[in-house]
Structure formats: C-alpha cells, structure tokens
Amino acid sequence: MVQAAQREARPARLVMVALVSLGLLARLAPAFMMPPDAAARLPGAPVYFVLARSLAEGRGFVLTETVQGGPVPGADPVAEPAVAADKDEAAVQRAPVMPAYPLLLAIGCGLDDAPLRATLVIQAVCGTVAMVLAAWMAHRLAGAWAAVVAAALLAFDPLGVLFAALVSPVTLAAVALAAASVTGLAAVQAVRTGRRAWPWVLGAGAAQAAAAYVAVWTLAVLPVAVVAALASQHRRRLVTAWGLATAIVVVALAPWLVRNAGQGDEPAPVTDVGAGVIAAKEGKQEPGEPARPEAGAVRRAGRVWSPALPPGIENGPLHPAAGYTSLLPVVLLAVVGLWALRRQAEAWWLLVPAVAITFWQAAVGGWPGERAAVVAPLAALAGAGLVALLGKSGGAAEPARK
User: Fold this and answer.
1) Which of 27, 201, 234, 278 could form an S-S bond across to 241 if both were Cys, CB 3.0 to 4.6 Å?
2) Is the residue at 397 inside a domain?
C-alpha cells in the first residue's frame, strides 16, 4: 500500500518540480524587465529607498532627507531617490517602517550595480520559496497532489508575480508568514499526535519575529493564535507552545523597541511619524469613509478581501480581472478544503494569518494589497479542497487522526 502511494506520488513530484521552475521564471522575468520607475510605483517606495541608502552608506536606519515624491522616471530609485536636502535632526532617527525591507534594499546595493534589480531578484526567489512552503503545507494535509494544486495556484498568481517585481515588503512578509505557518502547522500536528513539538515551536517563533520585522501588522497573528489555542482540545499544550513562540518574538523585537525608545521616540515598533512621511500611506482616511467607527471597520475589512485590484496598481500592467482570477479560486477552494478537513485541527490553524490581517485592517487600517502576504496558507487549504473534490491524494505526509 505504501509502495502504491509512492508510485502515485512520483508523477506529482515531477509536476511539482516543473511548477516551481515555471513559477521562479515567471517572477524573474519582471525582475529584469520592469522599469525602475514602474517598480517604485507604490507610495511608500521613496521612504524605503532613503532608508536603504542610509543603511548602505553606513549611516544607520535614519531618514536623512525628507521624501518629496516618486522616483525620477528611468532612474534607479535606490541610487537616486527623490528627496529634498532637509536635515531635520528631530525626525531623522524615527522609525516610519519596520527595518527588514530597507535592509533588503541595502543588501541589493551591495550585490549589484543596479541595486533595484538585485532586490527584485531576491524577491522573486522569496516568492518562489513561499510557493514551495504552501505546497509543503498542502502535502502534509492531503498528499502530493494537494501540493501540486497549491503550487499551481501560486505559480502564476498575477498579484504574486507582480508584487515580486514591486518595491513593497509584501513578498518578504509572505515568505516569513508562510514559514511561520509551516512550522506552526507541524507544531500543532506534533501536539495532536503526542510527539515532541518544541523544535517546531521555536521555528514558528523565529519566523513570526522575522515577519514582524518586515511588517508590523503581522503581530496580529499572536492574539488570533492564542484564541485558536484556547478553542482547541489540546489547549494546555498549545497555549504553552504559544507562550514560548510569543516569548521568542518579544525577545527578538526587544532591541528594536529599545532602539526606538533610545532615540527619543516611543518604544513602539513603528512610530506615528510615518503617517507624515509616506504620502497616501495605507490606513489614511478616504473620502466617503463612514463616520461611525464600526461601519468604517467593516468597510476596511471588506476591502481586504475585495477581488478588485488594490489601490496603487489598478492602473498598472494587470487587467482588472486579474484580481478576481488571483483571489476567487484560492478562497473558494480553501473553503472546500476546510470543510473536507474540518476534523483536522491543524487545517483551521491555517486560517490564522487571514483572520489576523482582517482584524488588523478593520481596527487599524492598511493597504488591501497586504492580503497577498497571507495567500500561501489559503493555497494549501485550496489544494486540499480540490483533492477532496476529485478524491485523489497521492499519500498525505501526515495521516488524518481524530
């Protein structure tokens, strides 16, 4: 029986290799073809460029200039950001964004004469890794063919491909959250089956800390995860595991919080100066926003899962229908997968990032495009959903147990 499952899984592995290769090529092509000014089309890009140049020149994480607009058309905006020579020392030490993405841009400065191209190549690789991690989760849930479906959904996902070619931390956040979901899934499975879970818990904490250094909203995963732990049959072990992972996140963020407090600012991950630096920053009150807080929260949460293209890329290279083809198949199949695996507790855990970003955007606001960072766990559920519909697995890595 095991040999039969392995024989059935062999063609799935070949298809997987092909999909991963094609997904990487689909992301690398824009990295070399995207004009620099088009890659820097999102509002926060100039701030990232200024911080990256400051890091690359050894001046630290400081805003040494005031951002005045977008990059010069045709120029590499990392090398030539659009800034004014405003040396306001009261603001240069502030933290308008988390530091991981500017650091990635700074690394690009040291790898290539065209820093932006090097960064986009790294993002293409990160996007492909997120796709592989989604396939790994799907394989643990429902077998090799579920992994193939998850990889296929992400390989040519139009938003995933585009974000890998834009100056945005979304792709980096996606791979960090996918790693946190992978290790979290393995930890939940270990707890459920009575095996040793702490190595996976340590990995989940480290991955979640990395995600927090990329985008502050990813910290919303922690309260959602503890609610999921309290609702589980294995709540004591899972809450203990959550506490260990959360402690790792706190310890990892402590130097950054101390740094912000020491610079005369609040000991917060991101300071409020960012709202004044980044033009049209995510979460800004929009015309027509409901006056009632609860109505505005519902509207903001709804925008996260709207199939329309997010603001800032609606006039870009993608057809308006790309938002629908990117979101709807994943969400619909994920619902089917959740129903098919409803008796497996770990399947529900894959919803944690999606629930976290929904609550964060409802409460705080943000850019709807950040939804792309939580698609990988949903794609894993979607792979399981299509396999359930077709009745074909190829041998799950982790058999279902009640």
Assistant:
1) 201
2) no
State the total domains in the chain.
Answer: 1
Q: Which two tokens stand for residue 219?
A: 């910290």
Domain presence at residue 337: yes
**Domain for residue 396, yes or no?**
no
Beta strands (DSSP E) in 74-210 are: 83-84
Question: Is residue 96 left, alpha or beta, with left meaning phi > 0 and alpha meaning psi from -120 to 50?
Answer: alpha
Tell the burial category of 397 from Cβ atoms under 10 Å away from its Cβ (0-12, 13-18, 19+).
middle
How far apart (Å, rounded) are the C-alpha atoms in residues 134 and 157? 13
Distance of CA 180 to the CA centre of its chain: 10
The Cα 201–Cα 254 span in angstroms is 19
The range of the structural domain enclosing residue 152 comes to: 2-390
Instruction: List, in sequence order, every residue forming a beta bridge with 66; answer none if it has no partner.
Output: 84
Rounded Cα gap, residues 305 and 351, in angstroms: 14
Residue type, 339: W
Phi and psi at residue 84, to the nearest 5°: -115, 155
Neighbouring CB atoms inside 10 A of 67's CB total: 23
Confidence of residue 12 (pLDDT cuts 50, 70, 90): confident
Closest CA to 337 of 127, 192, 132, 143: 143
Residue 394 structure tokens: 């190829």
Residue 108 main-chain phi, psi, to 5 deg:
-60, -35
What is the average per-residue pLDDT within 191-204?
92
Mean pLDDT of 35-42: 85
pLDDT of residue 230: 92
Q: Compute the chain's Rg from CA coordinates.
A: 21
Closest CA to 151 of 330, 7, 308: 330
Q: Is residue 400 part of a domain?
A: no
Residues 6+ apart with CB under 8 A from 190: 196, 197, 200
